[in-house]
């Protein structure tokens, strides 16, 4: 006879909400859910499957009431001026995965005598954003003149990742949890986060967001590293209210990408589609970032900015959708190093080949179970 167990109805509903299931998904994936919530006891195997499907630790399902899960880093996200509700399993697991990778890399860095990065914690929110932005551009070699080698702002995003990693910051860009393509991250929940550390600073960017938003988020999270503070962010370019550190990082990010002092001389005076495209090509950024800086430089009113931003966002999304055909399917060995951070992946593969890290730990940290995948990734990274 199968073993039946008792699960509190509120805990079942909490697990469904945590997994981000809507009513249709809940009915399809857990058809007995309503009966369980009404008092019928599920079997232990049914509860174990429900835990796997909702990505819930099994033990939590036997609590008398839903637990209050805390985001493990400072949560600076807001919707308006209100804090964001219950964190999803996908977001929490992504943070835990990155913390695990950072812990490993910190040990590797210390073992190999890597010096602390002096820019970590070198700024405060009392510093002028334009001044900090200038320091970041200088360190990255990302001045406007340096961007001429980039084909467009999408190319600039990929090259920017390499420039940031060259400073010693791990950059991970992914739209999924680990390597699970069925667990897609939602930009409306978070756009990125920073894990500050003197020798192993890490930034994560939600790859499900538009490329236009990703490049802004990347610099926004880098600004948090300059503050020396870990943070979970929404990094919304249109934000006018919210936490002081978030707004400061927004200002820094915008000025890194489009320096106001330069923009004032470049701008023709009318935010036409042609003018926005021209400025976007010059700075190798999205037209959305250009619009934000026009507003920040007081060359657009808030009302004009909101209207033009909405129109331009719709146009940019349409352009991206039209280009997406060439990117369908993707190449695992092309995208995976970006999800992992090339710097982190190279170090982990090299450490494994040297015998300092076991293959089981390497597979877990890389998010793979196959040795063939590990070897192919190593070849792609150029680690013999």
TrEMBL record:
Q: Which residues form the IrrE N-terminal-like domain?
A: 168-294
Q: Which InterPro entries match?
A: IrrE_HExxH, Rad_response_metalloprotease
Q: Which UniProt keywords apply?
A: DNA-binding
- On the tree of life, the source organism's domain of life is Bacteria
Q: Which GO terms describe its molecular function?
A: DNA binding
According to UniProt, the name of this protein is DNA-binding protein
Q: Which source organism? A: Luteipulveratus halotolerans
């Amino acid at each position: 006879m199968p073993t039946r167990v008792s699960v509190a109805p509120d805990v079942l509903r909490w697990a469904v909400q945590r997994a981000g299931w809507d009513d249709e998904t809940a009915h399809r994936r857990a058809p007995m859910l309503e009966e369980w919530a009404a008092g019928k006891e599920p079997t232990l195997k049914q509860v174990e499957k429900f835990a796997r499907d909702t990505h819930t630790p099994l033990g939590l399902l036997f609590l008398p009431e839903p637990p209050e899960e805390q985001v493990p880093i400072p949560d600076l996200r807001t919707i308006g001026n209100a804090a964001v509700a219950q964190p999803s399993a996908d977001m929490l697991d992504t943070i835990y995965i990155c913390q695990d990778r950072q812990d490993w890399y910190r040990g590797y860095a210390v073992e190999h005598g890597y010096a602390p990065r002096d820019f970590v914690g070198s700024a405060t929110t009392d510093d002028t954003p334009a001044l900090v932005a200038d320091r970041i551009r200088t360190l990255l070699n990302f001045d406007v003149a340096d961007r001429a080698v980039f084909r467009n702002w999408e190319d600039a995003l990929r090259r920017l990742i390499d420039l940031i990693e060259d400073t010693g910051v791990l950059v991970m860009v992914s739209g999924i949890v680990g390597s699970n393509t069925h667990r897609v991250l939602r930009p409306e929940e978070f756009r990125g986060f920073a894990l500050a550390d003197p020798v192993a600073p890490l930034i994560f960017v939600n790859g499900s967001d538009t490329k236009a938003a990703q490049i802004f988020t990347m610099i926004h999270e880098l600004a948090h590293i300059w503050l020396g503070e870990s943070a979970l962010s929404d990094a919304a370019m249109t934000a006018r209210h919210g936490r002081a550190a978030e707004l400061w990082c927004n200002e820094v990010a915008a000025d890194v990408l489009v320096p106001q002092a330069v923009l004032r001389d470049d701008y023709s005076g009318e935010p036409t589609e042609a003018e926005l495209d021209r400025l976007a090509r010059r700075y190798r950024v999205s037209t959305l970032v250009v619009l934000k800086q026009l507003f920040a430089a007081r060359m657009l009113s808030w009302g004009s900015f909101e209207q033009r931003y909405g129109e331009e966002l719709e146009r940019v999304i349409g352009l991206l959708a039209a280009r997406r055909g060439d990117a369908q399917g993707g190449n695992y060995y092309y995208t995976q190093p970006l999800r992992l951070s090339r710097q982190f992946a190279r170090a982990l593969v090299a450490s494994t080949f040297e015998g300092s890290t076991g293959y089981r730990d390497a597979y877990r940290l890389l998010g793979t179970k196959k040795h063939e995948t590990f070897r192919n990734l190593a070849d792609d990274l150029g680690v013999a």
